[in-house]
Specification:
By secondary structure, the protein is α/β, with parallel strands linked by helices. The protein has a single domain, classed as Metallo-dependent phosphatases (Purple Acid Phosphatase, chain A, domain 2, 4-Layer Sandwich), CATH 3.60.21. It is built from 4 helices and 13 strands. The strands form 2 sheets. It has a 7-stranded mixed beta sheet with strand order 1-2-6-7-8-10-9.
Length: 203
């Protein structure tokens, strides 16, 4: 069960969204779908196959952008359908490829630069990572989740847990498509298609 504040006030606006959850939460975390229908379908399958409390999306949902090649199965309208079906469970932030028109076709807020999630006694700051970055972010947080680079990262620095789940559609740095899980006092980065554990760190 979760409590959500300022959803109507924030819907479609830039700014912070704030979410608070109980203890022992299970989150599916993903970034940089870039309009790939197979990747969105796989995320939906993973989410639906288990009792997750929320799907945390770190931006760049529908479009590939001018620097990337088209991902496999590029079909933004199909991704809209998949994500819309999960909308009541999604917390999302704006990526550098999001535009105002995206808010017209998606039924959950996608234009907030950041979102703050309170879960398991931790304050999590979500951002895409192109303006608010792992190197430059607000203080007073326990975890920082970002995407943008398409390279998975899971490390702790100065008491803060940094997570980049990588990209589910256009991975870089020699990695395969990946996502992350938050559950049972632990964070894991896993391969999208085989579920293999790529990195693990205690919350």
């Amino acid at each position: 069960m979760c409590f959500k504040w300022n959803m109507k006030k924030r819907h479609g606006l830039r700014g912070d969204a704030c979410f608070s959850y109980h203890q022992a939460m299970r989150f599916l975390i993903a970034s940089d779908i870039h309009g790939s229908l197979p990747a969105a379908e796989r995320l939906s399958s993973i989410f639906s196959s288990s009792s997750f409390d929320a799907l945390l999306l770190l931006g760049d949902l529908l479009y590939h952008g001018p620097r990337n090649d088209l991902p496999q199965g590029y079909a933004p309208k199909g991704v809209i359908r998949i994500l819309s079906e999960l909308s009541s469970s999604i917390v999302s932030v704006r990526g550098n490829c999001e535009a105002e028109v995206d808010q017209m076709v998606l039924p959950f807020p996608v234009l907030s630069e950041t979102a703050i999630v309170y879960a398991d006694g931790r304050k999590i700051l979500m951002a895409h990572g192109h303006t608010i970055t792992p190197e430059h972010h607000p203080e007073g947080i326990d975890c920082f989740f970002s995407g943008h680079t398409h390279i998975p990262v899971l490390e702790r620095k100065d008491g803060i847990l940094y997570l980049n789940p990588g990209s589910v559609s256009i991975p870089k740095g020699g990695f395969g498509p990946s996502y992350a899980l938050w559950e049972d006092g632990n964070v894991e980065i896993r391969g999208l298609w085989d579920g293999s554990i790529m990195a693990s760190e205690g919350i």
